[in-house]
Write a structure and sequence with these properties.
The complex is a heterodimer of chains A (466) and B (103). Chain A contains 17 helices and six strands. By secondary structure, chain A is an alpha/beta fold. Chain A has two domains: 270 residues, no CATH class; 169 residues, 3-Layer(aba) Sandwich (Rossmann fold). In chain A, β2, α14 and β3 form a beta-alpha-beta unit. Chain A starts with a helix and ends with a helix. About 2% of the residues of chain A have low confidence. With 103 residues, chain B is mostly helical. Chain B has a domain of 63 residues. Chain B has four helices and no strands. In chain B, α2 runs antiparallel to α4 and α3 packs antiparallel against α4. At the A-B interface, α1, α2, α3, α4 and α8 of A face α1, α2, α3 and α4 of B.
């Protein structure tokens, strides 16, 4: 084969890989076909990476082989050992690696071309974009993962002029980038400063964002990791990088939009608003304690055991308490008594898009018992008991009625329309938004205090004794 | 140069449109696997990283590229495996045989 034959072989294989990626994503339309879709995408990746090895520019394989082996071992260990409840931080860490890989590759390309004394302006521009987006995705996602594991405080860290400082850093990155596009030779140090500032910017962007807003952040950086790949693809003039990166970028942006819509907030408000920071019009309008009804597991068990229909509403508290298996057992016990059981899933329940669905799938809950906001909201009015497990702001009627509330206009689950409501909660403390929840003070609401796992467990044993 | 820029932009715009129409059809219940799966796909930079890591003209450049190979491989291998692990758990109402179905 001559040189052109190799290039044709590579590009032809990239076309096949691109088709397989798209078909793979199409198969994610239903849970039944999704697993095959994922396999197709993996096959596409294998083809793309494998055929790249025949590239004639490669002169030695030691580094490649070493890198692939090391990455494979780490990847397998991570994928095998991660707990399902730790999935949000796992996704955040993978976003970080995706961004980091793009930044490293763009940097490698810049240094090589600069060494040769030839960095065309168009290539330089895309290299700077890939480096900057990749670097801030790296640190931003690491901070997000830290917040999700609790290693970094979940509270928003806000200080005066933080947005001005972020803006200033962004300006520095852009200025250095433009400079390097026109003066690429012998300016490695300037490039290193650009990388450093972009890394810092990533940290600064995420620290002011609260834990419950992490679904938006994770989805957004998911998109960025794809866009960093696109920029690098432009620099290398490589179509498969552009296509795959564009698919990831689109996916992340769609998820980001779904999340912000489900919070009724703009992306700018999530990123720069410092939402949920302590001191911002917190709860207790008049400071007086309002009456509420606290019940024991026995009473709650009676309500559930003799109900005709029950809807469970899981939230982040379910993940924290790791109570998904107990909840599923409770559902089983109720179904055995002839109770109709459903689960209502709010789009922003938990810490990432689809968090509750994965958690419940782990506990073997069939996915056709899980309902979306739109699918189930009418059903609450015909439901005997709604059980809220570790959710708060997503069931707060204030979102519908009180115009001054920070969550006003956010679509919520109409739990308060059910004939009776049982709320499993540790205490009367307010949720992430820092506002009181009127649902807890309704006549038909019973509060069952305690850790979700043990509360659900005692409900199970009480119902079995009925 | 301009020619290849326009070609690349064409590919990018078309892929974004296809991505948008395909991904809006993914149901909310699969949003987490969608994220971790697309995450693995963003490991596609491995393609560029492999080539750059096999070129010996600059030691620093080669080391950076090898770092990119490691990170991208973690992304690809870990991402697809963990997505598969999740998707394996999604099942319909029918329980696996062997369990008492109460007939």
């Amino acid at each position: 084969m001559n040189a052109q034959d190799y290039i044709n072989l590579i590009n032809g294989s990239y076309l096949i890989a691109a088709i397989l990626f798209m078909v793979g994503l199409m198969l994610l339309r239903t849970p039944a076909t999704a697993r095959n879709g994922n396999r197709l995408s993996a096959l596409a990746m294998l083809i793309a990476a494998g055929v790249t090895l025949v590239d004639r520019n490669i002169v030695e394989f030691e580094y490649i082989i070493g890198g692939v082996i090391l990455g494979t071992v780490i990847g397998i260990i991570l994928a095998r050992t991660v707990q399902m409840t730790a999935m949000p931080q796992m996704v955040a860490v993978f976003n970080a690696f995706g961004g980091g890989a793009s930044a490293l590759l763009a940097g490698s390309e810049f240094i090589r071309l600069a060494d040769h004394g030839d960095v065309p302006e168009y290539v330089g521009t895309t290299i700077m974009l890939g480096t900057a987006i990749g670097a801030l995705t790296f640190t931003g996602s690491i901070i997000a993962a830290g917040k999700l594991t609790g290693m970094v405080t979940q509270n928003p860290i806000v200080f005066p002029l933080r947005n001005a400082l972020s803006g200033l850093l962004a300006l520095v990155v852009i200025t250095l980038g433009v400079f390097l596009v026109f003066e690429p030779i012998n300016n490695e140090l300037v490039f290193a400063v650009l990388v450093g500032v972009a890394l810092l910017l990533g940290i600064l962007l995420v620290t002011p964002i609260g834990g419950a807003d992490m679904p938006v952040v994770v989805a957004l950086f998911n998109s960025y990791s794809g866009l960093a790949g696109v920029a690098t693809g432009f620099a290398l003039n490589n179509n498969i990088l552009i296509i795959a990166g564009a698919l990831v970028g689109a996916s992340g942006l769609i998820l980001t939009r779904i999340m912000t819509r489900a919070m009724n907030r703009s992306l700018a408000n999530v990123m720069f608003g410092g939402f949920g920071a302590s001191g911002v019009d917190v709860a207790g309008v008049d400071g007086e304690t309002r009456p509420y009804r606290s019940v024991q597991a026995q009473d709650a068990a009676m309500m559930l055991g003799y109900a005709g229909s029950v809807i469970f509403v899981p939230g982040y508290g379910l993940a924290v308490a790791q109570a998904q298996h107990e909840l599923r057992t409770l559902a089983d016990v109720l179904q055995k008594r002839g109770v109709d059981v459903k689960y209502a899933i709010h789009p922003v329940a938990g810490r990432m898009p689809g968090h509750m669905n994965v958690l419940l799938a782990e506990a073997d809950v069939p996915y056709d018992q899980l309902y979306d906001l739109d699918q189930i909201n009418r059903d609450f009015a015909q439901t005997d008991v709604a059980v809220v497990v570790g959710a708060n702001d997503v069931v707060n009627p204030a979102a519908r009625s009180s115009e001054g509330s920070p969550i006003y206009g956010m679509p919520i689950l109409n739990v308060d329309h059910a004939s009776s409501v049982i709320v499993l909660k540790r205490s009367m403390a307010s949720g992430f938004a820092g506002i009181d929840n009127d649902l807890f003070y309704l006549d038909r609401t019973s509060m069952l205090f305690g850790d979700a796992k043990s509360s659900v467990g005692s409900l199970v044993s009480e119902i079995e004794d009925l | 140069m301009l020619e290849s820029l326009i070609l690349s932009l064409t590919v990018f715009v078309l892929a974004t449109f296809i991505g948008h129409s395909v991904i809006t059809k993914v149901p909310p219940t699969l949003h987490t696997p969608l994220m971790s799966g697309t995450n693995a796909i963003s490991g596609i930079v491995i393609v560029g990283a492999i080539v750059a890591s096999g070129m010996t003209d600059s030691a620093l450049s080669q080391w950076l590229a090898t770092g990119a190979v490691v990170l991208a491989t973690i992304n690809v291998v870990g991402g697809f495996l963990v997505t598969d692990r999740m998707l394996r758990m999604f099942r319909r109402r029918e329980r696996p045989a062997g369990r008492d179905s109460g007939t």
